[in-house]
Amino acid sequence: MPENTKKIKVLFVITKSNFGGAQKYVFDLATGLPKDRFDVAVALGGSGILIQKLHSENIRVIPIFSLARDVNPWSDISAFFELWRMFREEKPEVVHLNSAKAGGVGALAARLAGVPKIVFTAHGWAFNEERPVWQRLIIKFFSWITVMLSHNTIAVSDAVKNNTKNWPLIAGKISVIKNGIKEPNFLSRETARQRIFAKANIHIPEKAFVVGTIAELHKSKGLTYAIEAFAKLVPENPNLYYFILGGGEEKERLEALVGLHNLQGRVFLLGFVDDASRYLRAFDLFLLPSLTEALGLVLLEAGLAGLPVVASQAGGIPEVIENEKTGLLVTARDSSGIAQAIQKLVAGHSLAKRFAETLRERVLAEFSLSRVLKDTISLYTRN
């Protein structure tokens, strides 16, 4: 690139700075855009681990203090003015918005600040979560407004785009760019197991069959049904163990559920684990029992780790897990179905191995980060 050619200034905005799926997406794009073509910064709320990870990669971080607060009119107004002032000062060619609050408030602020290109990535829709109908209708309306105010919206799965098929006046505004990843630096099976078992402060027999989930502890992840499935499985499977890596507001309730079913010593909630995907090879099977899921970056990571997968037939999950080909799908909220699927793979080693191999091939072929970067850059530079 000639030295006198101006770099494209891209400013990512995301509400929270923890390290869930949306934050991983922002991190991968911010660090993956070619440095000779793009000048990148990330504006975010909170003081989470995403900030340290971006700093370690020499990505400039801009704190937006009002984004860290819960949704309410006063904090939203404050966030609007913070973002508007920042857009006016930074003068980015592209603002790339992620998450509902950053999307809605940020799209309006960017429009009024005269940003030439506003991109919003829909990592799923909050109106698909369990809420009162009136709340879902309000959220759906403001989601539509966000798409209208943005020049382009990226849906991370066909399922996410399909949720908008009856929305008016958005023809041509939504593009599907499915999630993609680069292979994590996995720990070996032996090392991962040693560290996971040490975190749980327990000795696990060598012949143990270990099931794992990596997820934030929210109701939408369906972990209640996973624990209830293990209550059915454990009496007949003395070497079966379940580890859940992730923090969230459901932790106390889920721990109480483990106690209610007398699953202490067999089901473990380890809380937040930094770079949790590195530990995937500790598991013999990966379980994702979500009630709603845009696509599931963690499914791609499990695929690259060489694990067989049991997952719920929710949202964009079937775009990764094809039942009886790349894993087993079960109906959401069905603890008996989860138990039967796990039992099938516990008993069928060759079947589990075939699913794992086929899933890894699919992830490598269809869900690369290089494809996501190529398609996203094309969107940034499209007139």
Automatic annotation (TrEMBL):
Entry-linked Pfam families: Glyco_transf_4 (PF13439), Glycos_transf_1 (PF00534)
Gene3D superfamilies assigned: Glycogen Phosphorylase B
Domain Glycosyl transferase family: 199-361
Xref: InterPro entries: Glyco_trans_1, Glyco_trans_4-like_N
GO MF annotations in UniProt: glycosyltransferase activity
Domain called Glycosyltransferase subfamily 4-like N-terminal: residue spans: 19-181
PANTHER family reported for this sequence: GLYCOSYLTRANSFERASE (PTHR12526)
Name recorded for this polypeptide: Putative membrane protein
Organism the protein comes from: Candidatus Nomurabacteria bacterium GW2011_GWB1_44_12
Top-level taxonomy: Bacteria, Candidatus Nomuraibacteriota
